[in-house]
Amino acid sequence: MFENKDESRTSLGELGEFGLINHLTQTFKIKQSSTVTAIGDDAAVIDPDGKQLVVTTDLLVEGVHFDLSFMPLKHLGYKAVMVNLSDVYAMNAEATQITVSIAVSNRFPLEALEELYAGIELACSIYNVDLIGGDTTSSTTGLLISVTALGQAEPATLVKRDGAKDGDLLVVSGDLGASYMGLQVLEREKQVYKVNPNAQPDLEPYAYLVERQLKPEARKDVVELLKKIEVQPTAMIDISDGLSSEIIHLCKSSKTGVRLYEEKIPLDPQLIQVCEEFELDSTTVALSGGEDYELLFTIKQEDYEKIKGNPHLTVIGHITPENDGLNLITRANTSIPIVARGWNALKDEE
Ligand code: ADP
Ligand code: MG
């Protein structure tokens, strides 16, 4: 990390566009029966077999969404797939295929793109999705990656944002805020490295936070769990921008209010410790940090028994009538309105 590796460099020009695409994608295997035709024709062909097709896309831009000075390219490839799969799972759908489009400058040798595709391939094999196409072009500035993910769902089990009802329980998977604090740690170490390139960062005390930032996992397991325990969420969204902004999206779509309990928000002990070190309020970080890629969903009260005690799921509040508004009940038992603040507000506070 943070070093300039002088590895072998094969110029992209040596391969040509078709040679490059073939080189990067030749080891990918087709796993889904719905994939009829993948890379190599004018378009891919999918047979959805009576299911509803789910489509989502995200564009990642160097310097805006990622910093290659601490983001290894293999992790970047993996994360670019995760952020898309997370959106498919948030529909309670199964992710099945992706396309990957890249724009690269000649600053990147073939070996760098091999790393990127190694991360993409690892994500595809763990999450059982097929790479079925993409586009490759040159860029005069940084690296751009656009991933489109496809998924399928039975019409009866697909979950949107707009189905929450008064009295439903608000549930979140995993824990929140860690990815944001991981980024704070990496950015701090980058500044230290700039001043003293010989300083080796000791990231061990921050391992969980850094991992959540660099190698997030989309919650395929939660979608499978809900199916297994026969819980059909009434509304669902994934947490990419921070808990408060996702709660606002869900409640606005569903035309409801909410009561969120501060003491229930799941936080990892390492997050609490590092927030103290950075003098940041851990609740604020969990509410506004983002990039958690956890699932936030509502369930009927009668389903509570089915999720009770599950270590992956936490009930953090409940849905109220729209007129009651969106409220955070603090540890001191006062009620304050939930507002979307996101990254920028957090930055101002520092
Ligand atoms: P066209 O000129 O018809 O757009 P391309 O030469 O761009 O075709 O692509 C040839 C094939 O390779 C297509 O199947 C396309 O989807 C796939 N492909 C192109 N770039 C990538 C990439 N970066 N990753 C994966 N597949 C790609
Ligand atoms: Mg093309």
TrEMBL record:
Residues the record lists as binding Mg(2+) 2: 58, 87
What is the role of this chain? Catalyzes the ATP-dependent phosphorylation of thiamine-monophosphate (TMP) to form thiamine-pyrophosphate (TPP), the active form of vitamin B1.
Where, in this chain's numbering, is ATP bound? Answer: 117, 134-135, 161, 240
Q: Which segments constitute the PurM-like N-terminal domain?
A: 40-152
Listed binding positions for Mg(2+) 5 are 241
- List its EC numbers: 2.7.4.16
Q: GO molecular function, one example?
A: ATP binding
Q: Where does Mg(2+) 3 bind?
A: 42, 87, 238
Which organism does this record belong to? Leeuwenhoekiella blandensis (strain CECT 7118 / CCUG 51940 / KCTC 22103 / MED217) (Flavobacterium sp. (strain MED217))
* Positions annotated to bind substrate: 65, 291, 343
**Principal EC category:** transferase
What protein family does this chain belong to?
Answer: Belongs to the thiamine-monophosphate kinase family.
Key word Zinc present in the record? no
Q: In which pathway does it act?
A: Cofactor biosynthesis; thiamine diphosphate biosynthesis; thiamine diphosphate from thiamine phosphate: step 1/1
Q: GO biological process: what's one of them?
A: thiamine diphosphate biosynthetic process
Q: Which residues bind Mg(2+) 4?
A: 42, 56, 87
Q: Which Gene3D superfamilies match?
A: PurM-like C-terminal domain, PurM-like, N-terminal domain
Domain PurM-like C-terminal, residue spans: 165-323
Q: What is this protein called?
A: Thiamine-monophosphate kinase
Keyword list (alphabetical) reads:
ATP-binding, Kinase, Magnesium, Metal-binding, Nucleotide-binding, Thiamine biosynthesis, Transferase
Which reaction is the catalytic activity of this chain?
Answer: thiamine phosphate + ATP = thiamine diphosphate + ADP
Annotated TM spans: none
Binding of Mg(2+) 1, residues: 57-58, 135
Stored HAMAP family: TMP_kinase
Q: What else is known?
A: Reaction mechanism of ThiL seems to utilize a direct, inline transfer of the gamma-phosphate of ATP to TMP rather than a phosphorylated enzyme intermediate.
